[in-house]
Amino acid sequence: MIASQTIFNAIIAAEITIDTKANDAGKNTQSARSGSQPIDSAPVAADVSYRTAQATDAGGLWKMVCADSTLEANSPYAYVLMATHFQETCWIAEQNGELAGFVAAYHPPTEPDAVFVWQVCSAPQWRGHGIGTSLLQNLVRGARPQTRYLTATVTPDNQASEKLFRGFARRINAPVQVGEGFPTSLFPDERSQPEMLFRIGPF
Ligand SMILES: CC(C)(COP(=O)(O)OP(=O)(O)OC[C@H]1O[C@@H](n2cnc3c(N)ncnc32)[C@H](O)[C@@H]1OP(=O)(O)O)[C@@H](O)C(=O)NCCC(=O)NCCS
Description:
Elements: H1 2-25, E1 48-52, H2 58-66, H3 76-84, E2 90-95, E3 98-106, E4 114-122, H4 131-142, E5 149-154, H5 159-171, E6 176-182, E7 195-200
Helix pairs in contact: 1-4, 2-3, 4-5
The structure holds coenzyme A.
């Protein structure tokens, strides 16, 4: 387990190092990752930096989610909790000081070897430029050392989300299992789509 964690961390570290160089150059990383890298690449947005969240980020996260038609907005208080109590698993992407994306996640108390992605979002103008992938990479790299799985639920109609998680798994050479997450019957609203559980790992 320690060996696989070490190998995984090395892959993630290499990936992030290359991403940083690509960001500096402001260009696609496809060629930079050929050769010995066991992972492929997505086009990377220029000048985007990544850091863990602070309490003062919560309002921006809430506004970004409210502006998105796909995501379910939670209360502003919920984002304050994510940016404080779950700060180490809540990552921010910034471009020129502006919020370009975020991932809010936590370690489920009943699954200490997993990190569960609660919400991930990139700014509409930056989608398809690698920000979602980089947020997941940073999340896993900064997660607790015993972390071997990344989990998330995805509705069947959210192709961008499915592509994001499958692409992340492909880049780290980890298997993906898809099963029942939360059925519609659990929700009191009128939703018609279940939440399918994506389980990526072990890594
Ligand atoms: C899902 C989301 C976070 C992806 O972020 P992103 O920054 O675009 O992700 P990336 O640029 O790293 O792309 C990851 C992969 O998804 C693919 N992708 C991105 N947007 C896509 C779309 N609209 N349709 C299909 N594929 C898409 C990319 O091509 C890439 O594929 P690859 O791994 O084969 O190269 C973003 O689309 C978003 O914010 N959507 C609205 C909120 C949401 O649905 N969040 C997920 C549920 S919590």
